[in-house]
Amino acid sequence: MLAIARGELIQIFRNRLVLLTSIILPIGFSAYLIYQHGVFEKVGGIGFIATMMLFVVTGIGFYTSVVTTLASRRQNLFLKRLRSTAVSDRGIIAGLVLPLAAIAVVQVAVILTVLGTVVGKPANVPMLIVAVLLTVLMMLGLGLATAGVTNSPEHAQVTTLPLTMITISVAVWVGITGTEELQVLKRLLPGGAASELVVGAWEGTASWSHVLPALGPLFAWIFVSISLASRMFRWEPRR
User: Fold this and answer.
1) Where are the transmembrane segments (predicted)?
2) CA pair distance 93, 189, nearest whole angstrom
3) What is the pLDDT of residue 39?
């Protein structure tokens, strides 16, 4: 698995498209949010800015790159060749997505640290860490499921668009308006519960007892996405 992950990490820095979507674009957008934090703070607060950063990294960078990478490896029959080795199916998938997940987590950690240095640290760091890790898991599951219906890296530009737009739109909605109104709907939508956790953690407006119900929908999305991935994922191209 580690050998696969090491090789995949090298490929990331050789592939301009993956490099752009997984690293350059999220960092550039996050840098802009930090630079203009005074403007965006008036719209929805610092928690809103942190939420946007998280979902730009995980929704555009991580999720899209997972789908593109797996579709590419399937198309060139690399997945099929890996299955002939001693590595288990789970080990193969883990090796392919581990570098992308590590890059996403490191990016979020660095970006939020810079934001905290500029505007002040978050009120509840443990809650923020939980929100970040669960969001990465959710987007990973959704990426694996989406890869099952994606025929090629080019096709990934189409198949990833709906969920990318939905999760970022929900994050903006929750980040600006909160969850006092339409709470159940906002929590049930993908990204809604995670956005509530991030805003509450950064601004100190929510205790663990308050956000505990939001963990249910978040875990549900993780379970559903991984279940869909196990059913929909394909190791070989359609003939």
Assistant:
1) 17-35, 47-71, 92-119, 125-146, 158-176, 211-229
2) 27
3) 83
Identify the residue with better confidence: 41 or 88: 88
Query: In whole angstroms, what is the distance from residue 66 CA to residue 202 CA?
Result: 28
Cβ neighbours of 234 (radius 10 Å): 15
pTM: 0.91
Q: Number of H helices and number of E strands within the chain?
A: 14, 0
pLDDT of residue 89: 86
Take residue 13 and report the two structure tokens written for it.
Answer: 């820095």
Segment 160-187 shows an average pLDDT of 91
Mention every residue, 6+ apart, whose C-beta is less than 8 A from residue 174: 51, 186, 191, 192, 195, 196, 199
Tell me the pLDDT of the chain averaged across its residues: 88
- Contact predicate 18/69, CB 8 Å: yes
Give the number of other Cβ atoms within 10 Å of residue 226's Cβ: 17
Q: How far apart are CA 60 and CA 91, in angstroms?
A: 25
Q: Does the pLDDT of residue 19 top 90, yes or no?
A: no
| C-alpha distances out from residue 124 to 34, 116, 153, 172, Å | 20, 12, 39, 21
- Residue closest to 146 by CA, chosen among 156, 137, 134: 156
Query: What residues contact residue 185 under an 8 Å CB cut-off, 6+ apart?
Result: 192
| Separation between Cα atoms, residue 116 and residue 34, nearest integer Å | 10
CA-to-CA separations, 224 to 62, 144, 162, 219, in angstroms, rounded: 19, 11, 17, 9
Residue type, 236: E
